[in-house]
Write a structure and sequence with these properties.
seven-stranded mixed beta sheet, 109 residues, mainly beta, 1 helix, 6% helix
């Protein structure tokens, strides 16, 4: 559905990075292949998951988007297949971060 870099402070704190690359999928069509990851609720009311074995941040869900699930691009088997083509919450970005150039419609920055 979407491929983006998120610059919000909540995401930056959750993964310890300057931004987080996400893909958004329909939650109805998604299943975890192995065991369910660990879950926690953030101070903004979102539900985040992470791998209990290694700590990798895996997903983000929020009641404001009940049919969507965001997955961390870096946790995918082929992250290079999903380059971000937009930035979300750019007003919260760190001053030294450059934003993605708008896409020409082919999914590439």
């Amino acid at each position: 559905m979407h491929q983006a870099n998120c610059h919000c402070a909540n995401c930056r704190r959750a993964v310890g990075a300057q931004a987080v690359a996400w893909i958004t999928v329909a939650s109805s069509g998604f299943l975890w292949e192995q065991e369910e990851p660990q879950r926690y609720r953030t101070d903004t009311g979102a539900r985040r998951t992470f791998c209990a074995a290694c700590g990798t941040s895996l997903s983000y869900e929020h009641d404001s988007r009940p049919n969507e699930l965001d997955l961390t691009t870096g946790s995918l088997d082929r992250p290079e297949d999903f380059p971000p083509n937009r930035d979300v919450f750019p007003e919260e970005k760190l001053s030294w971060v450059n934003l993605v150039k708008p896409s020409d419609g082919d999914g590439r920055p």
